[in-house]
Write a structure and sequence with these properties.
Shape: elongated
Distance between the termini: 37 Å
Mean pLDDT: 94
Number of helices: 0
Radius of gyration: 17 Å
Helix content: under 10%
Length: 143
Amino acid sequence: MLIETPRTQAAVGRVGGVAVELRDATFSVTTPVACLILTSLDGQPLAISRHLLLTTVARSENTGTVYNATRTRLLNSGTSPIVMEPVVGSLSLPLGERPALRVFALDAGGRRLSEIAASTDDGLVDVPLGEAFAYEMVFGESG
């Protein structure tokens, strides 16, 4: 499934191993099944937004979850913490007229954990994925 609106673009499903090219973003991931959602946080269209949120989700379940042999019936729902498969790959965005991009891995509460090194080549910004499940992207924020 693909979603393409001016302020949100997403790819959901069997996205691993193929480049999913949307109007303002390209997802290239190796995780077989995933959900990647890119959203503008400043109300501007993605092509000119200076503040973006990328949320990535793959397989997840509680620790100790137990199913029957065919995985058609839940026998034990388990407990926290939730075990999550990382979404590994990259997101490419056109830089356009925007200043340099800073990318931050976010924790479950939306707080910045660490800065992710994005690279720029031939007018495209490439953001590596796999370190977190949510990323804040800010164009023009100084360090």
